Amino acid sequence: MKDYLPLIEKALDAYSGSFDLPQLFSESMRYSLLSGGKRIRACLCLACCELMGGSTDDALPFAAALEMIHAYSLIHDDLPAMDNDDMRRGKPSSHKAFGEGNAILAGDGLLTMAMRLLCDVPGQEEAKKAVFQGAMDMAAGQSLDLNVAARDMASLHRIHDLKTGALFRAACLSGALAAGCGAEEAQVIRAFADKLGLLFQMTDDLLDREKDEAENKLTYVTLLGVEQTKREIEALAKDIRGILGRYTGDAASYLLELTDRIAVRRS
To answer: What's the predicted TM-score (pTM) here?
Structure first.
């Protein structure tokens, strides 16, 4: 499987360290941004760019910006006012390591840093818009999740289509658009991203089912049951393979393998 991670990690380290900032502010941002993770959204961005005939250089600023946006969202999501999680990726959450005020500022800084990075990219207006839209939609999904609890399948899907799916769409579309794909191909990439985002959320619900049940939280598992959720995951993975079947090359193989890994993930 192709490995985009070294390229992404190098770019995140270099860019986040390029600003003259107060030490604690910089340290708190980099603590969350450089804490590892699968970098799925950034990898999707680079792979979709290559799938459309572009190079990783074309999409790397968008991939890095998406990881900054994702990191900021996790910092804020962990806060006591939201999900109140003390641990993230095996170490204390930002607000536990630096205090709530500094965690909020770290999230603010990462979002601003992402916007600055995109502003430095010449042209590529459609790819930029895809990232901006993804960031706004994600925040809208978080707002719905916080203020309007899901009641049924339609409202649950609406929340997760924004909260989770938005950055998947932004990643895939910005990468494809950075490569110069046309409107028809962009629709194909969007369909792929939408199904992959839903696949990711359903597997997430399977992994968290005990915790969600204890909190009486409505999820795909509580609505469909474990076995039906597994069948839905299998169906989504099959649909994604069908969408990607029109493409060949390393990027297509990477996306197919990534789909399979998400479908059977255990963490």
So the answer is: 0.95
